[in-house]
Amino acid sequence: MRTRAEIECWLTDMDGVLVHENTPVPGAAELLAQWRAEGTPFLVLTNNSIFTPRDLSARLRASGLVVPESSIWTSALATADFLKSQMPGGSAFVIGEAGLTTALHEAGFIMTETAPDYVVVGETRNYSFEAITKAIRFIRGGSRFIATNPDATGPSTEGVLPATGAIAALITKATGREPYIVGKPNPMMFRSALNRIGAHSENTGMIGDRMDTDIVAGIEAGLHTVLVMTGISDESEIERYPFRPDEILGSVAELVRDEPIESDLADGEDGLAEGL
């Protein structure tokens, strides 16, 4: 069994691990500073496909966390990476926001409403009956069905909102076709993240707050898994599952070593620290 000392690269979830409702989790800024100071390769992972890495980097910066956009890996990027490997230069009909359409454009895909190779469903706050109807007809006509992530609901200040998984289920009911889901808990997302930073599963750790996505996918991808208790999981939740993480910590603060880490917030790293 690997120890934490053997870990040279890190993948970490974002919501519930580094931030909670736009407030930094204690220790998150220090851990990110530690990784940057030591040149530790890392990626912040999120199933959210609404925002581009640039958007997310700015949102994290506004919360007081410096994460370069190059260190953010979304389900939209993982989906685009997967589709590019499957059908370079293909076409897609997309239900989603800029994070998804931008990733697909940059992967060389054409957005179309004429016999698309793929129907790709991601997160959006503007689900349209017309767009869902088109997606159903395209899939029934032979388009391949892809979803960025399986999350059925998402949070808002007013309560839960229907998310990608719920809309994908509606389309499945109408077509009889299940989507291929790229995001967590599919270890495909972790493997593409590892490729992004040139890491190997043998020396990479995954930090998450959910047993059913972060931890199970980390285990299946062969990573050292760390569950933090600052998000969704609690002791009773952990006991529900037949698998266990390698470590259970109160928060990412426990991953920060005692020796002081000189913060580079003032350096304007990648132009992201300005305005903090």
Task: Offer a quick outline of the entry.
By secondary structure, the protein is of the alpha/beta class.
Description:
This protein has 276 residues and is of the alpha/beta class. The protein has 2 domains: 4-47 and 184-255, Rossmann fold (3-Layer(aba) Sandwich); 76-181, HAD superfamily/HAD-like (Rossmann fold, 3-Layer(aba) Sandwich), CATH 3.40.50.1000. The protein has 9 helices and 15 strands. It has helices at 28-38, 53-62, 75-86, 98-106, 129-140, 164-175, 187-197, 211-220, 235-239, and strands spanning 9-13, 19-20, 23-24, 42-46, 72-74, 91-95, 110-111, 118-121, 144-147, 153-154, 161-162, 180-181, 204-208, 224-228, 247-249. The strands form 4 sheets. It has a 6-stranded parallel β-sheet with strand order 5-4-1-13-14-15, with helices on both faces. A 5-stranded parallel β-sheet has the order 7-6-8-9-12, with helices on both faces. It starts with 8 loop residues before the first strand and ends in a 27-residue tail after the last strand.
Keywords:
Rossmann fold; 276 residues; 15 strands; phosphatase activity; HAD-SF_hydro_IIA; disordered C terminus; 5-stranded parallel beta sheet; alpha/beta
